[in-house]
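As a warm-up, study this chain.
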Amino acid sequence: MRQTPSRAPGGVRRTGLRLALGAGAAGLLTSGCDARQAYETTFGVGFPHPVTEQGKVTYDLWLGSSAAAAAVGVFVWLLIAFAGFRYRKKSEDLPRQVRYNLPIEVLYTVVPFVIIAVLFFYTAVGENKVNKLSPKPDVTIGVVGEQWNWQFHYTDAHVQTTGVPGRPAQLMLPVGKKIRFVETSPDVIHSFWVPKFLFKRDVVPGRQNTFEITVTKMGTYVGHCAELCGEKHDRMDFSVKVVSDADYQSYLSSLRADPSAADNGVTAAIPTGAN
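Now compare it with the structure written out below.
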């Protein structure tokens, strides 16, 4: 009877190796999103996912700082464990005494300096991106924080909305537009804060604070005053509704038709257009 020759073991191993490499390559190609998600889950530490272009800069800086802190922490823990195990007490003899070790002292002086310098560099770069103002923003919003509510002035349309007790103010914004905010206050210091924007800035009497954001996702977001501004500070909430540009223009048209939404004296400190 004729026997069929069996495959050599080496050929089987090579075939298995090719299959394993192919599966590994496919896994790497398809796990990019999973790797990013795992990275954010591990080092996000409760940070909300940003809905603005500027917030993403802050978010990435936080992720990198958390990852660096975790790496330093793990390295220190390993050093402690190594020292505790390697140099544990083995006899009653007094160990050899060492006054100093110059290479190690240089190392633990230079390495922290390098870490701080790198973090400072990325922080400065991120701060410049977040604070950057465009020459011609698409929309300019005046923000007036007053005891105990908010007033939002749509300077391009010359209309405004003001919150009242029991009905917090709502700010309407268009998605994908460069939005300039100009803040002031007639009484005490407040702070404009929208957690999902990963941004807040103080509202100071007699001073105009300016910043700019571009919202990338439609939705309704909660806003707060992040500065203890007095007895009824807890009433200083508001909401931000981000809509399409068509819906935003329709909203402005409805405000123009409302006599109560006309400019008032409180918004006189807010300039029209870019400052």
